[in-house]
Amino acid sequence: MRSRGSFNKAAKLYDEVRSSYPDEVIDWIIEKPKIDTSFDSLEIAQGTGQVTRKFLKRDYKIHAKKYLNDQ
Q1: SS3 state at 62
Q2: Do 48 and 11 touch, CB atoms closer than 8 A?
Q3: pLDDT by residue for the chain (71 residues), tens digit each?
Q4: Pairwise CA distance, residues 34 & 48, whole Å
Q5: What are the strands, taking DSSP E only, across 2-42?
Q6: Sign of CA dihedral 20, 56, 65, 5
Q7: pTM (2 decimals)?
Q8: Which CA distances in Å does 65 have to 9, 12, 33, 35, 57?
Q9: How far is C-alpha 46 from the chain's CA centre?
């Protein structure tokens, strides 16, 4: 049986080696529904945080729960 921390190790490696999302994709997500930084966003089932960091750099407020295994 795998330990609870094995997912966290795999997610960290995945985050380190995969390329990030292009800024154009994030721009499209923002522009299409016309959201602006006055909106609060709720992120459900976040992955390694790559997209979240892109929104945070654009001054968006994101509410997200850390992985339960990270506690």
Answers
A1: strand
A2: yes
A3: 556 666 667 777 877 787 888 999 999 999 998 888 998 888 887 777 888 889 999 999 988 876 544 44
A4: 25
A5: 40-42
A6: positive
A7: 0.66
A8: 18, 17, 24, 22, 19
A9: 5
